[in-house]
Write a structure and sequence with these properties.
Elements (H helix, E strand, L loop, with lengths): L9 E5 L4 H12 L3 E6 L2 H11 L2 E4 L5 H10 L5 E4 L15 H28 L3 E6 L12 H20 L5 E8 L6 H5 L4 H7 L8 H12 L9 E4 L16
Parallel strand pairs: 1-2, 1-4, 2-3, 4-5, 5-6, 6-7
Helix pairs in contact: 1-2, 1-8, 3-4, 4-5
The structure holds 2-hydroxyethylsulfonic acid.
Protein name: SDR family oxidoreductase
Pfam families: adh_short (PF00106)
InterPro entries: NAD(P)-bd_dom_sf, SDR_fam
Length: 250
């Protein structure tokens, strides 16, 4: 791995190959962190890491051995951004696709658990650690067709929030960032590559973009160490609780 400068703080960002993860990696690098970009797509994270002067580590958060190997390669971790995750499908409960549910629990819930558990000793040892977990407004709301995703995001949020008590007295801050609609590859993944269906999600609204979320994470990571921003819910002005949009005619 590229070596961080002496005393340089290290931030690990999962899902750093695109969208919120990539934008966050760039923002944190701009704040002076050595950023470790983690994702499955080697070519993408290598390009991102090269641009930042950071390190690319190819790892799938659903793979125990890969996450252990990730932890073994890191001497120091000051910030962890649990960003890897996503949605698959929009079926009602009556037609739920169990494979989609498994994928969503594996990536959002167990992925966050694996990476957090593996890096926790180093975050504590840093003396001023920070864990930022990207959940979603789906961690607080439910909506028709969204049960698998909202269940996974509620689970991921519960895991993250539990740490607030378990780590009390340890030098680690915890921030949950819960965005609404952000135009990234999110909907393309959810609809299995169906571009038209993905575009329809954002039709007639002004969604958030990845940079909007990255800037908030940069703000969180640059507060003094006694300040813990606990939960940040952010959504486009055009989005009320899920399913209610201010859509303008095209
Ligand atoms: C995704 C939030 O509003 O696009 O986490 O479903 S939304």
């Amino acid at each position: 791995m590229a070596t961080p400068a002496a005393q340089q703080r290290v931030a690990v960002v999962t899902g750093a190959s695109s969208g919120i993860g990539e934008a966050t990696a760039k923002t944190l690098a701009g704040l002076g962190f050595h950023v470790v970009c983690v994702a499955r797509r080697a070519d993408r994270i290598e390009a991102v890491a090269r641009e930042l002067g950071g390190t690319a580590i190819v790892a799938d958060v659903t793979d125990d051995a890969a996450v252990e190997a990730l932890a073994d390669q890191l001497d120091r971790v000051d910030v962890l951004v649990n960003n890897a995750g996503g949605a698959k499908g929009l079926e009602p409960v009556a037609d739920a696709d169990l494979d989609n549910w498994r994928w969503m629990f594996e990536t959002n819930v167990l992925g966050t658990l694996r990476v957090t558990r593996a890096l926790l000793p180093k975050l504590i040892a840093s003396g001023d650690g920070l864990i930022v977990t990207l959940t979603s407004i789906a961690a607080f709301e439910t909506y028709d067709g969204g049960s698998g995703y909202t269940a996974a995001k509620h689970g991921q949020g519960a895991l993250h929030r539990t740490l607030r008590g378990e780590l009390l007295g340890k030098p680690v801050r915890l921030t949950e960032v819960a965005p609404g609609a952000v135009e990234t590859e999110f909907s393309l993944v959810r609809f299995d590559g169906d571009q038209e269906r993905a575009d329809n999600v954002y039709r007639g609204i002004t969604p958030l973009v990845a940079q909007d979320v990255a800037e908030v994470i940069g703000f969180v990571a640059s507060r003094p160490s006694h300040v813990d921003l606990d939960v940040i819910v952010m959504r486009p002005r055009d989005q009320a609780p899920w399913g209610r949009w201010n859509r303008r005619a095209d």
